[in-house]
């Protein structure tokens, strides 16, 4: 299963409560904090709701565990 690396690149100060809650539910705590989540429709929908606040990049399976495959 593929994974996504989601990074908070813009502040949630002054944003709607719903957007702040979405960022928090993704597990993002502060600026430039990154989390790795599974690539599924629920996560994609959350990312779409706050796409102006986050950066998303695909992650290889080996990178998600902290190891690299040769």
Kindly describe this structure.
It contains 3 helices and 3 strands. The protein is α+β, with helices and mostly antiparallel strands and 70 residues long. The protein has one domain (3-61): Ribosomal protein L30/L7 (Ribosomal Protein L30, Chain: A, 2-Layer Sandwich). It has a 3-stranded antiparallel beta sheet with strand order 2-1-3. The radius of gyration is 13 Å and the shape is globular. The two termini are 18 Å apart.
Major sheet characteristics: 3 strands, antiparallel
Structural class: alpha+beta
Q: Give the spatial strand order of the biggest sheet.
A: 2-1-3
Fourth CATH level, the homologous superfamily: Ribosomal protein L30/L7
Q: CATH architecture, please?
A: 2-Layer Sandwich
Roughly what fraction of the amino acids lie in strands? 15-25%
Average pLDDT value?
91
Number of helices: 3
Rg result: 13 Å
Q: What is the H/E string?
A: EHEHEH
How many distinct domains?
1
Alpha carbon gap, first and last residue: 18 Å
Number of strands: 3
Give me the CATH fold name.
Ribosomal Protein L30, Chain: A
pLDDT < 50 stretches: none
CATH class: Alpha Beta
């Amino acid at each position: 299963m593929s994974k996504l690396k989601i990074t908070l690149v813009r502040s949630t100060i002054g944003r709607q409560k719903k957007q702040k809650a979405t960022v928090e539910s993704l597990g993002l705590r502060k600026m430039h904090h990154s989390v790795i989540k599974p690539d599924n429709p629920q996560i994609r929908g959350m990312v779409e709701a706050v796409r102006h606040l986050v950066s998303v990049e695909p992650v290889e399976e080996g990178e998600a565990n902290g190891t690299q495959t040769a």
